[in-house]
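Hi there, hope your week has been kind to you so far. Do you reckon you could talk me through the fold, stretch by stretch? I've dropped the whole record in just underneath, so have a look:
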Amino acid sequence: MTSRRATVVGSGPNGLAAAVTLARAGLEVTVRERAAGIGGGTATHELTLPGFRHDVCSAVHPMAAASEFFTRFGLSTRVELLTPEVSYAHPLTPGRSALASRSLDRTVEQLGVDGPAWRRLLGPLVEHADEVAAIGGGPLLPPHHLATLARLGVRMLHQGGPAWNLGFREDAAPALLTGVLGHAIGRLPSLAPAASGLVLAALAHAGGWPLVRGGSAGIAGALAADLLAHGGRIVTDSEVRTLDEVDADVVMLDVTPRALLALAGDRLPGGYARTLRRFRYGDGVAKVDLALDGPVPWADPELAGVVTLHLGGTRADLARSEAEVAAGRHPDRPYALVTQPSVLDATRAPEGHHVLWAYTHVPHGSTLDRGEAIIATLERFAPGVRDRILAVSSRSAAEVERHDVNDVGGDIAAGAISLRQLVARPRLSPTPWRTPLPGVWLCSASTAPGPGVHGQGGWLAARAALRELGIPEPALGPR
């Protein structure tokens, strides 16, 4: 058993994934977290009223269900993943919606004349969903999945360019897909949102889009429990202000490049420091959580049991809204990503009551409270929802950053989703987590493979550190 020590700064899913991997390899691991609680983007709190449990950031977890790290870790045996029959829905007008079921066949049937185009677009990716997940969860383009990479690339060019409507004849299927592309904050159409959105859309028909019974905090709790079981420690309310405070053989930083620059001071070589300074952060989100005295009164009753919805109208409407945000404005009719977890998970609210989680995109660093704009969007598709609101918790992009400093300017992706920053995150390298400082590694969502609750960044960084130390990679499964 080695006596080497490791310090992990930050307890988001990547930091905890790194900590678990290192602790199972025999290192003495300490996690230091600046906040009072662990989890970062995987936290669940009573934000509105007692008994109403709201996910603070991430709520639905297709990447957690598909990631290699969480598969090896056995996440589905440690938390209860609830996977809805309908992965997501998109109301176009009050009373008319498009639904993406877990069943590709059912979705194709529901889309009518555009069903065959939907199958041509997503069917080959669904057939190779494991390889699609591997491409989305790795640092570089994997040579052993070249055929699937080519399939994804052709479709990315189609949905990321001006010909994105080619093949569609009606408005439902394009709108349904655009809602998923909108998860990556940026202009539409463009290549990077198309790439990430197509991966999510394929997973919707493969493993589905699950949530965690009791809240996303269960993911952080499962990781923390495993860490403690293998001798690790977690210290909260423990901000690290400089790397000089940390004395360890391995230092894992679940922080942004901006934070690494501050922690390292003048210790970084000039070229690497310039690379970190060039790293771009994207536009942000403003978020609202609602406590409701009953279910959302959707104009389309088919939406009553759907967990994830994308609001904002047609494909053209959503493209217009995202262009407004990219231009530094707050759109009058914004895109809104909505989840209503309590329709599937009764533990989220008192009996007969519900919680609703929603965010909209805003310019980087916006201080504007968009709670009313989100509620107005909800009211457009669910007349009367305003009358069911018992309490509201609303955060501007600036307040989102205050909760989690990795969300720079409200950017929950911890770095702009651009084609360059999908490949070089934060730099182009087989080991992009390595820094020039001996034993110091960057493992946040600002590194490959990017944002999402998948643990891949932390796990891959920890594996690279163990290889450098000559320590065998440990097994991760529950015992």
About this structure: The first helix runs from residue 13 to 24. Residues 71 and 383 are 41 Å apart (CA to CA).
